Amino acid sequence: MFGGKTALVTGGASGIGEAAALRFAQEGATVVVADLNIAGAERVAGAIIAAGGKAAAVAVDIASDEANQVLFSTCRDRFGGLDAAFLNAGILDNWAEFEEYQTASFDRMLAVNLRGTFLGLKAAMPVLRPGGAAVVTASLAGLLGLPPAIGYSTAKHGLLGIVKSLAAPYARHGLRVNAVCPGSVLTPMVGVTEATPLVDPDTLEAPPYRGDLHPQHIAEVALFLASRRAAGINGLAVPVDAAFTADFGESNPE
Question: If one looks up domain 6-240 in CATH, what number appears?
Answer without folding.
Answer: 3.40.50.720
